[in-house]
């Protein structure tokens, strides 16, 4: 079975996206949600750039493993 290897920087980006999503959905005020959505979009674009540079194919579903230090 194939696994995507996630580098430490990628892990931090993914954790930031997860935190932003969680925070956005916990708040009822729409202004913070819009700000969080912008932050999420920026983080996803950054993650996409990292993946592009590593030429990692993300089109097929595949389990993810974090790179061991």
In short:
The protein is 62% helix and 9% strand.
Write a structural description:
There is one protein chain. This protein is mainly alpha-helical and 69 residues long. The protein has one domain (4-66). The chain is 62% helix and 9% strand. The protein has helices spanning 8-26, 30-53, and strands spanning 4-6, 64-66. Helix 1 runs antiparallel to helix 2 (30-53). The chain is elongated. The model is unreliable at 55-62 (pLDDT under 50).
Give keywords:
69 residues, mainly alpha, two-stranded parallel sheet, 2 helices
Write the layout of secondary structure elements.
Blueprint: E1 4-6, H1 8-26, H2 30-53, E2 64-66
Parallel strand pairs: 1-2
Query: Helicity, in percent?
Result: 55-70%
Structural class call reads mainly alpha
Number of strands: 2
Biggest beta-sheet profile: 2 strands, parallel
Ranges where pLDDT stays below 50 over 5 or more residues in a row are 55-62
Determine the oligomeric state from the structure: single chain
Strand composition percent? 5-15%
Number of domains: 1
Note the overall shape.
elongated
Radius of gyration: 14 Å
Spatial order of strands in the largest sheet? 1-2
One letter per element, helices H and strands E, the order comes to: EHHE
Return the average pLDDT rounded to an integer. Answer: 61
């Amino acid at each position: 079975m194939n696994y995507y290897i996630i580098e430490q920087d990628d892990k931090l980006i993914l954790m930031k996206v997860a935190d932003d999503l969680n925070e956005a959905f916990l708040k009822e005020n729409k202004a913070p949600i819009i700000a969080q959505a912008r932050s999420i979009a920026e983080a996803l674009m950054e993650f996409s750039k990292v993946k592009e540079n590593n030429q990692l194919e993300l089109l097929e579903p595949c389990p993810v493993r974090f790179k061991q230090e």
